[in-house]
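From the shared-data thread, chain only:
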Amino acid sequence: MDDLVIKGTSIGWSWEKLEKDDTILGCFLIHTMMSWKLYMDENVDKSNEEKRREHGKITHALSGIQNDIHNLSIVINMLNELVDKLKLQSNDYNQHLLTLHASVLLETYFTNLRSIYDFCSTFIRIIVSDKYLKSMPASDSYNSLLKFIKKKTVVGVLPSIVIEILRDNEQVFETVKIVRDLIIHKGEENLVNLNSDGTLCFTLYKNKQGTIINMAPDILNTNQTEYPIMKYLSVLTIRVMNFLDLFGRALFHFFEEIQGFQLPLWLTGLGGYCMTGFIAFLDEHA
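Structure, as tokens:
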């Protein structure tokens, strides 16, 4: 994508070009939903108010998830710049300021990850036949979707493979949810420290009977009270992106099975100033 583009979305990529371009992020869920949007923009029954409303809801969710992914790339860029600035001008004031900024950025990152999941609960509606739409969770909440797939009434509403993909990713979602809820809803302090080697680490601090514990899940298996921020976010984000790819492929496949025709697949790329660094950040721990 042209360097003049601050952030944006482009369509019409080939698999080869998308895979070779390290400035563009491809995601199968975005491919699927953009393909759905381009088709439905021309074919939605505009005389049917319910269909129009459903089309609008899903279209807004598509815009939202693209913004969330761009926001992830922007936060990573800002975290990298904070560390670089500290290396150039290190003193106690700058170090304390850095950790305050990093704490807010970390909160923002988890908020966007959580939002991505909620949009998925909207996208799944494209593979639900009209007669079952009213039985789906009313709220656009991934929590509600996970509760729904555990009920007996889900049989026949959603394909078993899609249910399995959602269940297999539940632990990843729980990590995102736990950290985000601890910070946003429970007001736990997100403490960021700069280690002597220049590594940013974070702790969701709790003193339990004289022992300091980190309430954030230890997905890196460090057995430590502090987790390195960049590695933690990279590993977690890779797991989220892998889920989005599997989920997107399933939606694309079952749309054809349920609707009776295959969507023309438009490969879609997300790019901009911060996306190259974000891709490198993910590749570092892939």
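The chain is about 60% helix and 10% strand.
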